[in-house]
Amino acid sequence: MKSEVTGGARRNFVAAEAMIDSAVLTVAHELKAPLSLVRQLALSLELEEDMAGVQRVGDQIVATSERALRQVSDLLKVARLEDALFELEPVNPRAVCDDVVSELWHLFAFNRRELRIDYRNRRHLVVANRQLLYSVVYNFCLNAMNYGGEELPSEVMITDRKDGKIRVAVRDYGPAVPTKIWREIKDGFVNRPLEIAMRPGSSGMGLYIAARFANYMQAEFGLIRHRDGTSFYIDLPVSRQLSLI
């Protein structure tokens, strides 16, 4: 009996170690990518023949660094969620989405992508933390940028739900999300950064961050698989209070 218990505990320990190793590898890979790009861009400065080219490369270096710093900042926030430092209050999701789209518009344009908005909600306030909600929408949009084009724009949508909640979603036109990952997200078991092999441009760490922030805000994180893409969403409780945000 003792050996069976010991054997079971060891199997659980090995499984936990494997999960941690996988998560560490995913995080390392995603943090390595922007650092490698910054290095490549810095080396390319010597090849630029005019100040306009130097300025363009410099802008890319700054933008790439800022995105990497934001990702690290979000990971630090995940580590501090248990400290309850992020107050929930009435937030206007349209204002949050507008700010995200405004920040990412130039990045989408540079990559020849388009980002549109479609707001259909009649109830305008949700219970959320503005910083965390901003990060969720930001990560959804960054994922969507990798899939689409000038004629297949990504969309930021806000709609009222029949269950009384407000849904904020970002629609892309990428490859289908594998069933295993879909079920893991659907069942709310996103407890580590996900690696989605069929969507190499997706940020598994970004989706993990979004899932953790959604859980903290007592919201539901999920996705809808379309025949020509995916919508990642967060369903937020409606606030009946007034807000100046």
Please describe what this structure looks like.
By secondary structure, this protein is of the alpha+beta class. It has six helices and seven strands, in the order ααβαββαββααββ. Strands 2-4-5-7-6 form a five-stranded mixed sheet. Strands 1-3 form a two-stranded antiparallel sheet. Helix 2 crosses helix 6 (204-216) and helix 4 (130-145) packs antiparallel against helix 6. Residues 9-23 have low confidence and may be disordered.
- Low-pLDDT runs of 5+ residues are 9-23
Number of strands: 7
Question: Roughly what is the average pLDDT, rounded to an integer?
Answer: 78
Strand order of the largest sheet: 2-4-5-7-6
Number of helical runs?
Answer: 6
Apparent shape: globular
Order of helices and strands: HHEHEEHEEHHEE
Roughly what percent helix? 40-55%
Major sheet, described briefly? 5 strands, mixed
Structural class: alpha+beta
Oligomer type: single chain
Distance N to C terminus: 60 Å
Kindly provide the radius of gyration, computed on alpha-carbon positions and rounded to a whole number of angstroms.
20 Å
Residues in β-strands, percent: 15-25%
Summarize the structure.
This protein has about 240 residues and is of the alpha+beta class. Helices cover about 50% and strands about 15% of the residues. The chain has helices at about 1-45, 50-80, 95-110, 130-145, 180-185, 205-215, and strands spanning about 90, 115-120, 125-130, 155-160, 165-170, 220-225, 230-235.
